[in-house]
Every structure is written in C-alpha cells, then in structure tokens.
Design brief:
Length: 172
C-alpha cells in the first residue's frame, strides 16, 4: 500500500494499492486480467486505487484501501473495472479455499466446472469484500477482459502488456 501524500512525487511506486488526499493527485493501476478497483470519498477529498487479483482480494487489499482512505466506509464509493469474467476464469482448489475457508458464503462466487476446478467471479468476490467492510455504493464490473476484444487480456493474447485504470483528484 502506498500513501501518495507522503511519498516523493518523482518516485516510481510498486504496490497493490495507493491512496491520496492531496489536490492534483492521480493514481493508476496496471492490470491484464486482474480487477482494478477505484475508490472515492463522497466529497472527493480522498481517492484510492487497488489491483485486485485473487491473491490481493484474499489478502485484504480492498479492506486495507478502504481503511487507508481515512473516512468512514459509508462515505466511500467504489468502481470495479474490467477483469477476467466468471465464465472465462477457471481456478483450482487453492484459490477457492483461500476465500471459502475465511468466508463460507464466498462459495457463491464459484461454480464447479470439473473435479476440483471452479469458475471464479472476481467482481462478486470484490463486491462481497466491499460490503463486508461497509462500502455499499459499488459500481462497474461486468466486462470480461478475456472475452471482450476491446480490452487487453494476457490469457487471450499471450503477450506482455497491461492497461491502465486511473483516478485523479482535481484541485478544488
């Protein structure tokens, strides 16, 4: 997690999430098939961006970002960007267990495909995590990077690349 307000402006950061509360701040998340999640407080005073693949989601990147925004969760809005869709994303027992062992209801985001394999809905898992930490206004989701040629997908293209999801806080 990077707090953009206390890091040097000329520093290249490597983190799964960042927050900012200063004017004229911009945050970007680079993804291929993982889920970008953007955050903003009601008044626009705090913004955040998180890279939420299955490891990040199961590790609490969404909850950590909400906590670092510095406002109560009921004042936070979240937007889910394009990511690999449930119909395109098959995972094994390790991924399913990472969620279901902590939250049995998370099993709803997994549909069996073959023995010990499931389709995984990253957006549903993110929505569940956001709701659990008190964020009820969640928008976006529903675009499948693998199935939709408008988006880059490492799994489809088998080529190095990313696309950027940005959020910025304008001078007020």
């Amino acid at each position: 997690m990077v707090d953009a307000d206390v890091q040097a402006a000329d520093t290249e950061w490597v983190a799964d999430a960042a927050v900012a509360r200063t004017a004229n701040a911009a945050l970007a998340i680079l993804t291929a098939d993982c889920l970008p999640v953007l955050f903003a407080s009601d008044d626009g005073a705090a913004i955040g961006a998180a890279h939420a693949g299955w490891r990040g989601l199961s590790g609490g990147v969404v909850e950590a970002t909400v906590a670092r925004l510095g406002v109560s969760a009921d004042r936070v809005m979240a937007w889910l960007g394009p990511a690999i869709g449930a119909r395109s994303y098959e995972v094994g027992e390790d991924v399913r267990s990472a969620f279901v062992e902590v939250d049995p209801v998370a099993a709803e985001a997994f549909v069996p495909t073959r023995p010990r394999h499931w389709s995984c809905d990253l957006s549903a898992l993110a929505r569940r995590r956001l709701a659990h930490c008190g964020v009820s206004r969640v928008y976006g989701g529903g675009f499948d990077t693998l199935a939709d040629p408008r988006f880059y997908s490492y799994r489809r293209d088998r080529d190095t690349g990313r696309f950027a999801t940005l959020i910025w806080r304008a001078k007020t």
